[in-house]
Amino acid sequence: MSESSSMTVTVTPPEQRHERVRPASQSWFIARLNPVSRFICPLIMSLPLFTTLDVVSASIQFVLSVILLWIGGINPLVVLRRTWPVWIAAVGSFVTIALYGRTSGTVHFAWAAIVISDGSLYLAVATFLRVAAIAVPSVIFVLGLDPTDLADGLVQILHLPSRFVYGALAGIRMFTLLQEDWRALGLSRRSRGLGDGNPIRRVCSQAFALLVLSIRRATKLATAMEARGFGASDTRTIARVSKLHAIDWVSYAIALIIPAIAVGTAVVTGYWNLPLTSN
Amino acid sequence: MNDSAEFRKSAPVGVEAHDWGWRHSTRKDFALRHVDLTIRPGERVLLLGASGAGKSTFMAAMAGVLGSDDEGVREGTLTIGGVDANEARGKAGLVLQDPDAQIILERAGDDVAFACENLGVPKDETWQRVRAALDIVGLESLELTHSTRHLSGGQRQRLALAGVLAMRPGLLLLDEPTANLDPPGVREVHDAVKHVVESTGQTMVVVEHHIDVWLDLVDRVVVLGAAGDSHEGGVLADGTPDEVFSTMGDVLAEGGSWVPGRAIPSFPPKSESEAKGANGDAEESDVVLSTRNLAFGRNGIALGEHVNLDFERGRIYALMGPNGAGKSTLALTLAGLLEPVAGKVLIAPELAPKPDSREPFHWKSRELLGRIGMVFQEPEHQFAANTVRDEVAIGPKSMGKSDDEAYGIADRLLERLRLSRFAAGNPYTLSGGEKRRLSVASMLAAAPRVLVMDEPTFGQDFRTWSQMVELIAGIRDQGCTVIMVTHDEPLVQSLGATPIHFGVSETAAGNADEGSAR
């Protein structure tokens, strides 16, 4: 290979390979909310739904949420697409409850413990709608949430201890590194002839190696944080102010009104039933 | 960079150690003991010593991050600017070796502001300091919201430097800040530090094996280490660079420093005819591994396309190019660990496990053994056994050899790589250089015909570097092909390796400027 001195490999410039910056949220409304509100709003909205297991309240809540998200700037189709894991969970709970839920009314099918009846189908539909009504807005609210901004909010608005919150925040950043570690561990095991055997054993041994690596990384990170005065004194100042604005209060109001309408309609129409007390 | 006047407010501080010592609570011997050292404000000190001489311990002590009393035993006094080092947070700014470990927050500006928040600096002043610190390390074009994830190694180290400068420290502590960087990164960080110390007059203490890098900036050299038979480290030498290098040159080289002006060992390849004679099977083709129209990358996205390379038996190839260009990705693809995005990696027909199966990625894991081995950059990624001896025996055992044979191979390799005395020890407890040798030994045990190595000499001191070079030359001389990813020019020269350069494609090199690339 006499021409070897001129051997080259041409690659794309590394600067062009970065993933695009993702927006805080696709909704202009949600993007302007304080991160803490983005956690609390879905919580306020979902709590009333736990008092009832019926189709009316869940459907109304789901439809209202989707319409309001649309007004907030996210197309319903986008909502459905971005929440696909929710739908898998919802279908899963539908099937389970249809097969094993409390039997009442006409029995359509029975085999061993599986009994599909009118009652179990009704409960299954109600559960399916409830999972969707609770989880879809929640996912949309927290999607694209910036962990740093959330940490600021947790410390400044909810007054959680800053040492704990920022320590955890720095730890979360390590997950990217640990993902790379995990990949490298897997590749190295293949290269060492250990990649063929029982996958469960392989994962266990790899998990142990990852634990050792993560402790090492955590120790280094802790030193770097300590070297920058972290944990040195109680008088920590804040460089980024996290406040609740008018828009946050509007979001709380909406988060109260939606379930009020949904559950209220269920009560008025007589569909409301408390699953734990009714027999 | 007109903010240096801002930084003059923080006066340089000195260091005073009197009979100072530290013993880690799990160790028998003091890491350092009876240290008497005075560093005057504004001095620039290069701190040298062999691995384990206590350099990093002393740096951590000055930075006040050595740990509390239950983590070790302290003796004597150590003051920074007249204050006990543990109480002097913010007076000393410590930059460490690993660029990954020093970025704390997601956005560049927040990361630099982190120290100010911890020290209780008011908000407005914090952001002034952040901007000034970024400017002074040459990151003036970096936006405050720029993600820290997509910075190069050199940029990350400069960001870490800015992060400690925002504390207005007065004493800058640099613990091998360039050991993990490619040559452009080393220059970036050197130039940034030069600008900082020249415009602020801060006291600086730097630990580095590559003395050359910092020689133009230091006015004093301190050597730490254990004298004679003692197990306790202390100050071995102290003086101007000229004094110390003329009297201590041999000791320093032995201890792992790259002493300026000393020759590096050379292991050129044997002449062509000799190499052939040693492995005189005339029938065998010389090309053991080749790529045909290969596109390599991750997740189906090609980093480089139409790569046609031939790797010959008994030669060493060096994949060279900037950080992040995709050298490691190509190496993993050649080693049969990543699937080619397009095209093929082909092993010589006589080495294939089955005649119709020449593509390493489609082999079983076991079929890679004896054919292609990969030594990872982080030895810890590779370790899979509880003892050093078992670690090396894994390969032969997986190839179906009996325990006796496998341990025989392991013992011979450990002997050859001077690791025998650790045979019963845990791989994780070895030193950096030993771990590196073990990771090579464990791959060699399977007698691969092609050995791919990712940065085999990364961050090593001169002694472990020399051992590694000798080892790689030995692997080549046994007829094995070595493909290594490296930035290390001396390594390539010493081995007479064939460089394969990574170039950036012309068509798309438009907005390659740092910071403005958004």
Automatic annotation (TrEMBL), chain A:
The chain crosses the membrane at residues 47-72, 84-101, 121-144, 249-272. Keywords: Cell membrane, Membrane, Transmembrane, Transmembrane helix. Its main location: membrane. This is Cobalt ABC transporter permease. It comes from Bifidobacterium vansinderenii. The keyword Transferase does not apply. It is a multi-pass membrane protein. The keyword Lipoprotein does not apply. InterPro entries: ABC/ECF_trnsptr_transmembrane, ECF_transporter_component.
UniProtKB/TrEMBL annotation, chain B:
SUPFAM superfamilies: P-loop containing nucleoside triphosphate hydrolases. GO terms for molecular function: ATP binding; ATP hydrolysis activity; ATPase-coupled transmembrane transporter activity. It comes from the Bacteria. InterPro entries: AAA+_ATPase, ABC_transporter-like_ATP-bd, ABC_transporter-like_CS, ABC_transpr_CbiO/EcfA_su, ECF_ABC_transporter_ATP-bd, P-loop_NTPase. Keywords: ATP-binding, Nucleotide-binding, Transport. One of its GO terms (cellular component) is ATP-binding cassette (ABC) transporter complex. Residues 15-257, 289-517 form the ABC transporter domain. Residues 263-284 are annotated as: Disordered. Pfam families: ABC_tran (PF00005). Belongs to the ABC transporter superfamily. PANTHER family: ENERGY-COUPLING FACTOR TRANSPORTER ATP-BINDING PROTEIN ECFA1, HEAVY METAL TRANSPORTER. This is ABC transporter ATP-binding protein. It comes from Bifidobacterium vansinderenii.
